[in-house]
Each structure stands twice: as structure tokens, then as C-alpha cells.
């Protein structure tokens, strides 16, 4: 009886090891960080936020002893900084911001901390204007009030690159604003903005809500994709926002870029393996909330470019390899 009591007290005191969430025949202990984990997502109304919240619900069922907190952020660069400095354990990132990772890790004194769990879906460039707007191309944005996304977001980086490809400087050739997607949608609706950039999965809630209340169009940017690929990398792809994604918006040719779920190397390998397993085994559930979740696939998920896979994620992929 005394031995049982001592063991129970020891487990309660440590509170870091659990066996729940494992599957036979292997059921090793999982080491949970004190206080749980934090998922850094993105702006309110964006797909990163929706994905993070859906994953949190999955983990509440799959790993019920793990405390999971979801935090909004200003986007990919902010998320990289949070991972590098230890303020986040999981985070989302667009591939076109991967080049920032080594410098942010060095600045935080934590080289090699940022690792990948999976390539999760492709994000689409969406340049949104009112349907009755005279604006028809990126070059028409000259002198207009344009939101290029929150500071520290992949939207800001992509907007700058696209405007440069169109022969414009985002600091001098437009009346530059830096709002989140939800704020941008609201300000376009009330006439404070002429256009806004957004890079996200389809459909994005904030844009869909705007389109259901105000007729909108998307500007085509396909003519600049080859220049983006030449200057910045082949992860930029020619894509189309399909008709019907947003109310009364026709097919619109654009650019797409992959997005990744990242993890801190500080997370225990066993835990990341189980996080990876939960992500894939519940992809249908996540996709019921976030349609972009439908494209998650183990064959493409390992393609995370310059961000190495977390050892725990590697263990998961090896475990499901045919």
C-alpha cells in the first residue's frame, strides 16, 4: 500500500509523463512540457486560426492530458520568431518566409530550433477589390489605398514581391496600409480601402463573409508567377481560385505557395510523433472545419523545403511508410 501511494504521489508531482494517446502494441510514455503547448496561428478570420482551433479540438480528444493553447499572431514571420524564442511550440508558416528561419534562430540564440511537422496545404494569393471597382490589375493599384497584410506576415512579403514584379514599390507607389485580413475586409466594405492582399487557404472565412455581404472581385496575378519563381524559388506555383470559392467570383488565375506546420525541436520526439499521428488520422475532421485540410497527404507532407523535419515527425512518417 505504501509503495502504491509513493508511486501515485510521484506521478502527480511530476505531471509530465502520460500513456494516453498511444496505440498498441507500442505504448511508450509521452513527455508533456510543463504547462502544455502553445500553437501560434495567424490573424483573426484566417485559415491558420481555423486550422489551429480545429487541431486543438482533435488533441483534446486524442491527448486529453495535454494542455493546448491557441494564440493568434500577425503571421508567418511572427510565428517563426515565437518558435525561435520559445514562445510557441507549434506554428504555421508559408514557404516563402522559410528564408527567415536561420537568422531568427541565430538572433534568439537557438540555432536549429525550428523544425517541420508537415506540408499541410497550399495558400493562394488573393488581391481583393469591390466588384464595382475600376481596378483590374496590380498596376492599377498605383496611388490607391492598399493593405499589404499585417507586419511580420507572409502576406506582406508576397505583396511586396508581387508589386515589385509589377514595377512598383510598396512604400512609395501605393498608399500603404498594414491590416489583418478581418480588418482589411471590414475597411474595404466601408470604403476606407481600395484593395487588400491576402495569402491563405480556400476559402478564407473573412473573405467569404465579405463576399456574402458585398460583391467583390479578385485581381489576376498569374502574369507575375514566373518572375517570382525566377527570383525567389520554385515553391511559387501558377494556380487558380476556382469559381464559387467566394460568392459570384469567377475563376481567377493567381499564385500559390505551400504552407507548413512547424514544431520546436524542444518538444519530445514521442510527443511530436503522436501530434503528427493525430493530425493525419483526424484530417477528415479538420477538413470539415477547414476545407484546405482535405489535401493533407503523407506523400507530399514531407516536402518542407529548407525546414528539416522534426525527428518525431520522421518517426511517424517511417511508421506509416508502405
Describe this entry's structure for a reader:
This is TAXI family TRAP transporter solute-binding subunit. Pfam families: NMT1_3. It comes from Cryptosporangium minutisporangium. InterPro entries: TRAP_TAXI (IPR011852). By secondary structure, this protein is α/β, with parallel strands linked by helices. Helix 3 runs parallel beside helix 4 and helix 9 packs across helix 12. The strands form two sheets. Strands 3, 4, 5, 6, 7, 8, 9, 10, 11 and 12 form a ten-stranded mixed beta sheet that branches. It has twelve helices and twelve strands. 36% of the residues lie in helices and 21% in strands. It is globular, with a radius of gyration of 21 Å. The longest helix is centred in the first third of the chain and has 16 residues.
Any key phrases for this structure?
322 residues, globular, 36% helix, 12 helices, alpha/beta, two-stranded antiparallel sheet, 10-stranded mixed β-sheet, D-Maltodextrin-Binding Protein, domain 2, 2 domains
Mean pLDDT over the residues: 90
Number of helices: 12
Biggest pleated-sheet summary: 10 strands, mixed
Number of domains: 2
Helix content estimate: 25-40%
Shape: globular
